[in-house]
């Protein structure tokens, strides 16, 4: 039944009021499209329900308070966010993951530029197209919202049990016509629904008839079997389009006419005279459906968007949470003029390193390291802190030459087996080995392990919220690694400030650079023995350092009570935002929340205190100083040209030994993948990290929350 009203097409509705544009990121992030597309296609290939999940997430986000990425915000202690509203079972983890992965990759390419809302809009279109649906243009420039409330969800999403009247009213209130409503519902061609959304149709249709007589009987039978136990198994779901569930096509409308509509609200569309003509049209003419769907999606993508100053480009969620932490009072701030002696003038030009060292010989270098780093950090959130530590350790001991990656052998104890080695993370070793393996397949024998470690460190710092800085390349790997060279070449947590200043001075770092580098403790953690003296043996009369915030000291005492036997026990250096790279470390120092004696001394001594004051109040100044100090550190003692090698595998070590027992060692060597940065497989134990209970019960939960936030959301979307 073709109807004239259909020809009233809606292409005349202008989007021009909107401030979005197609080439919004053209200058600022030219790889935006490519990165989102690659991420989406990888994820879709691995997990075919991603398209449906992401489409659902997008619709949910846009209908509740506009397309502003607010559905991606996690709940916290005081606020239940959109994604935790009761209807949330329909939100697939896969959709969240696509956005988080793309955001992570984008933050490395063009930090702070692309909003989560734009990523979600673009990824949804890509996925729709990928599974057979239409291509429509996605305008960009959305900003992310800062508010996400579960209470805003109810009433802002259509429900499966609504009547057509209610649905029409619902969509009309948001500016959508009936035709647009029917077209958008066609998204169910790839969706699925949980049993509770349609069990009334199967088991409680009416008092006399348990099952809706208009459902195809065989279909009803199958659904009853699937959903027989839905109250005990609420995750059970059925495809909305039972015939071609993975394909974006017009089968959904054809199904409705055959009694194969799943939800009551689907089926009603084929019955109501206001919506039936559109169902008829779309079921026979897929091109019409695609046209209408494209239009409706573009329109939905503009729903109550935030642009300009109405929103932000979200970098992490912690902003929403920080408000709820308990802060001990800050001591008086004291700004000093010496801070303006900035060091940006120091030239790094003596070094022979260059930004585009691998441009010709290994053009995929950056993207391979980026992808490896992204997967590793997502799988194991302590990677960032561990890698930063490894990098620091490597550079301080005999220069940035990846000598830290060399294993010990029979005749030599290597750097990594010095007694301070508990602070070295297996994740970081694993990361470098993985990147090296991938690079050896792409451009064998070209890229040094030390360049990989340097770039991976920068990427991870940026990924968890820290500054982006330039990484010059061309380091060669060292061939010598001796545990005996470690002592005296790393700062210790019990050093006096004089010793620290002297130590950094001999390595060529100023006082200010030393304070900035210490800021890396914003994501690190330390084993109990590094600070046990502060809590148990401060001096003869006073067991605990009186400068330490009492509840904090108490919490630390509890977790470290048996640190001598449980040597893996550790605490975050930044107890407030342990997973986020920010200036909280310096704020903590002023509140007695510094962990190590060498942290606390920075705020006590008049020589370093001004820098602590500056960085605690001005994160921009800290980021600038940190970025500079890291660039400088990454040039420390580098080997270039013939002074080093591009390490392949370290067979040059240990070959001499020919005694008994070596057979075992040799065979271990053989099973190690060739061309990695390691000789022997790493069998480091994973760390156990504990967040101390700060005493007051109101404190416990937010701190746990901090951990959950930082570690599940990982500072991105
Ligand atoms: C849904 O929200 C509840 C809290 O209301 C939460 O415990 C649960 O994990 C959420 N489910 C999903 C799938 O996100
Ligand atoms: C529709 O379903 C929701 C949630 O399942 C329920 O709260 C509401 O009462 C239902 N409405 C009707 C009219 O059945
Ligand atoms: C429902 O649960 C019962 C008991 O757990 C089990 O025996 C039965 O097979 C289940 N039915 C379906 C359809 O999964
Ligand atoms: C640290 O080095 C020692 C050898 O000095 C080694 O036995 C131990 O396994 C290393 N610890 C870790 C955590 O790797
Ligand atoms: C500092 O700690 C190291 C290792 O724990 C120890 O060998 C050294 O004696 C300590 N120095 C001081 C001054 O306490
Ligand atoms: C121990 O430290 C406290 C606090 O700093 C101080 O008052 C006390 O005099 C010290 N005692 C000794 C024996 O040094």
From TrEMBL:
<dbReference type="GO" id="GO:0020037">
    <property type="term" value="F:heme binding"/>
</dbReference>
<feature type="binding site">
    <location>
        <position position="401"/>
    </location>
    <ligand>
        <name>Ca(2+) 1</name>
    </ligand>
</feature>
<feature type="disulfide bond">
    <location>
        <begin position="362"/>
        <end position="443"/>
    </location>
</feature>
<feature type="domain" description="Plant heme peroxidase family profile">
    <location>
        <begin position="19"/>
        <end position="321"/>
    </location>
</feature>
<feature type="binding site">
    <location>
        <position position="491"/>
    </location>
    <ligand>
        <name>substrate</name>
    </ligand>
</feature>
<keyword id="KW-0479">Metal-binding</keyword>
<feature type="disulfide bond">
    <location>
        <begin position="395"/>
        <end position="400"/>
    </location>
</feature>
<feature type="site" description="Transition state stabilizer">
    <location>
        <position position="389"/>
    </location>
</feature>
<feature type="signal peptide">
    <location>
        <begin position="1"/>
        <end position="18"/>
    </location>
</feature>
<dbReference type="GO" id="GO:0042744">
    <property type="term" value="P:hydrogen peroxide catabolic process"/>
</dbReference>
<feature type="domain" description="Plant heme peroxidase family profile">
    <location>
        <begin position="352"/>
        <end position="654"/>
    </location>
</feature>
<feature type="active site" description="Proton acceptor">
    <location>
        <position position="393"/>
    </location>
</feature>
<keyword id="KW-0408">Iron</keyword>
<keyword id="KW-0349">Heme</keyword>
<keyword id="KW-1015">Disulfide bond</keyword>
<keyword id="KW-0732">Signal</keyword>
<feature type="binding site">
    <location>
        <position position="577"/>
    </location>
    <ligand>
        <name>Ca(2+) 2</name>
    </ligand>
</feature>
<dbReference type="InterPro" id="IPR002016">
    <property type="entry name" value="Haem_peroxidase"/>
</dbReference>
<keyword id="KW-0575">Peroxidase</keyword>
<feature type="binding site">
    <location>
        <position position="399"/>
    </location>
    <ligand>
        <name>Ca(2+) 1</name>
    </ligand>
</feature>
<protein>
    <recommendedName>
        <fullName>peroxidase</fullName>
        <ecNumber>1.11.1.7</ecNumber>
    </recommendedName>
</protein>
<comment type="function">
    <text>Removal of H(2)O(2), oxidation of toxic reductants, biosynthesis and degradation of lignin, suberization, auxin catabolism, response to environmental stresses such as wounding, pathogen attack and oxidative stress. These functions might be dependent on each isozyme/isoform in each plant tissue.</text>
</comment>
<dbReference type="GO" id="GO:0006979">
    <property type="term" value="P:response to oxidative stress"/>
</dbReference>
<comment type="similarity">
    <text>Belongs to the peroxidase family. Ascorbate peroxidase subfamily.</text>
</comment>
<feature type="binding site">
    <location>
        <position position="394"/>
    </location>
    <ligand>
        <name>Ca(2+) 1</name>
    </ligand>
</feature>
<keyword id="KW-0106">Calcium</keyword>
<dbReference type="InterPro" id="IPR033905">
    <property type="entry name" value="Secretory_peroxidase"/>
</dbReference>
<dbReference type="InterPro" id="IPR000823">
    <property type="entry name" value="Peroxidase_pln"/>
</dbReference>
<dbReference type="GO" id="GO:0140825">
    <property type="term" value="F:lactoperoxidase activity"/>
</dbReference>
<feature type="binding site">
    <location>
        <position position="522"/>
    </location>
    <ligand>
        <name>Ca(2+) 2</name>
    </ligand>
</feature>
<feature type="disulfide bond">
    <location>
        <begin position="528"/>
        <end position="560"/>
    </location>
</feature>
<keyword id="KW-0964">Secreted</keyword>
<feature type="binding site">
    <location>
        <position position="403"/>
    </location>
    <ligand>
        <name>Ca(2+) 1</name>
    </ligand>
</feature>
<dbReference type="InterPro" id="IPR019794">
    <property type="entry name" value="Peroxidases_AS"/>
</dbReference>
<feature type="binding site">
    <location>
        <position position="574"/>
    </location>
    <ligand>
        <name>Ca(2+) 2</name>
    </ligand>
</feature>
<dbReference type="InterPro" id="IPR019793">
    <property type="entry name" value="Peroxidases_heam-ligand_BS"/>
</dbReference>
<dbReference type="GO" id="GO:0046872">
    <property type="term" value="F:metal ion binding"/>
</dbReference>
<feature type="binding site">
    <location>
        <position position="582"/>
    </location>
    <ligand>
        <name>Ca(2+) 2</name>
    </ligand>
</feature>
<dbReference type="InterPro" id="IPR010255">
    <property type="entry name" value="Haem_peroxidase_sf"/>
</dbReference>
<feature type="binding site" description="axial binding residue">
    <location>
        <position position="521"/>
    </location>
    <ligand>
        <name>heme b</name>
    </ligand>
</feature>
<dbReference type="Pfam" id="PF00141">
    <property type="entry name" value="peroxidase"/>
</dbReference>
<keyword id="KW-0376">Hydrogen peroxide</keyword>
């Amino acid at each position: 039944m073709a109807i004239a009203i259909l020809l009233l097409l809606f292409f005349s509705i202008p989007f021009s009021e909107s401030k979005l544009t197609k080439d919004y990121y053209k200058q600022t992030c030219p790889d935006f499209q490519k990165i989102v597309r690659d991420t989406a296609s990888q994820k879709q290939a691995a997990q075919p329900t991603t398209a449906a999940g992401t489409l659902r997430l997008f619709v949910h986000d846009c209908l509740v308070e506009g397309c502003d990425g607010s559905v991606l915000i996690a709940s916290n202690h005081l606020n239940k966010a959109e994604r935790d509203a009761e209807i949330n079972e329909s939100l697939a983890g896969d959709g969240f993951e696509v956005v988080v992965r793309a955001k992570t990759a984008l933050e490395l390419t063009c930090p702070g530029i692309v909003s989560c809302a734009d990523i979600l809009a673009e990824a949804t279109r890509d996925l729709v197209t990928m599974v057979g649906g239409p291509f429509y243009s996605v305008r960009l420039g959305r900003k992310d919202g800062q508010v996400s409330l579960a209470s805003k969800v109810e009433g802002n999403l259509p429900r499966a049990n609504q009547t057509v009247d209610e649905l029409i009213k619902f969509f009309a209130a948001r500016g959508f016509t009936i035709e647009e409503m029917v077209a958008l519902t066609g998204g169910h061609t790839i969706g699925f629904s949980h049993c509770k959304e349609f069990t009334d149709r199967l088991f409680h249709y009416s008092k006399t008839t348990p099952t809706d007589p208009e459902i195809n009987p065989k279909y009803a039978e199958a659904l009853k079997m699937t959903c027989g136990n839905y109250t005990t198994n609420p995750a059970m779901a059925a495809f909305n389009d039972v015939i071609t569930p993975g394909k974006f096509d017009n089968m959904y409308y054809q199904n409705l006419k055959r009694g194969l509509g799943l939800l009551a609200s689907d089926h009603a569309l084929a019955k109501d005279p206001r919506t039936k003509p559109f169902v008829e049209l779309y079921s026979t003419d897929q091109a019409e459906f695609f046209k209408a769907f494209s239009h409706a999606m573009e329109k939905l993508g503009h729903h109550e968007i935030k642009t300009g100053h109405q929103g932000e480009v979200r970098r992490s969620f912690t902003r929403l949470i920080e408000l709820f932490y308990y802060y001990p009072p800050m001591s008086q701030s004291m700004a000093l003029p010496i801070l303006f002696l900035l060091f940006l003038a120091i030239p790094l030009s003596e070094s022979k390193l260059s930004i585009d060292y691998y441009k010709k010989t290994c053009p995929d270098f950056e993207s391979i390291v980026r992808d490896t780093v992204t997967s590793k950090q997502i799988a194991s959130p302590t990677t960032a802190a561990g890698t930063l530590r490894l990098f620091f350790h490597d550079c301080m001991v005999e220069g940035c030459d990846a000598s830290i990656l060399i294993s010990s052998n029979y005749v030599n104890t290597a750097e990594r087996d010095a007694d301070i080695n508990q602070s070295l993370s297996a994740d970081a070793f694993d990361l470098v080995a993985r990147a090296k393996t991938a690079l050896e397949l792409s451009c064998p024998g070209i890229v040094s392990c030390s360049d990989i470690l340097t770039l991976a460190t920068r990427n991870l710092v940026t990924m968890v919220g820290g500054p982006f800085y330039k990484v010059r390349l061309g380091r060669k790997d060292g061939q010598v690694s001796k545990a005996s060279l470690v002592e005296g070449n790393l700062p210790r947590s019990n050093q006096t400030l004089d010793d620290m200043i002297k130590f950094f001075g001999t390595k060529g770092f100023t006082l200010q650079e030393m304070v900035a580098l210490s800021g890396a403790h914003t994501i690190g953690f330390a084993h109990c023995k590094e600070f046990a003296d502060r809590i148990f043996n401060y001096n003869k009369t006073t067991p605990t350092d009186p400068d330490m915030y009492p509840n904090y000291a108490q919490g630390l005492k509890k977790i470290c009570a048996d640190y001598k036997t449980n040597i893996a026990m550790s605490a975050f250096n930044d107890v407030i935002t342990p997973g986020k790279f920010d200036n909280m470390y310096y704020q903590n120092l002023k509140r007695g929340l510094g962990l190590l004696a060498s942290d606390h001394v920075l705020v006590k001594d008049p020589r370093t205190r001004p820098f602590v004051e500056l960085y605690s109040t001005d994160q921009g100044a800290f980021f600038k100083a940190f970025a500079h100090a890291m660039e400088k550190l990454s040039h420390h003692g580098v080997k270039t040209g013939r002074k080093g090698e591009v390490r392949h595998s370290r067979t040059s070590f240990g070959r001499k030994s020919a005694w008994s027992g070596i057979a075992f060692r040799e065979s271990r060597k053989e099973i190690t993948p060739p061309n990695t940065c390691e000789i022997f497989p790493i069998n480091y134990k994973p760390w156990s990290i504990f967040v101390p209970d700060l005493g007051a019960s109101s404190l416990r939960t937010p701190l746990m929350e901090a951990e959950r936030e930082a570690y599940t959301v990982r500072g991105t979307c």
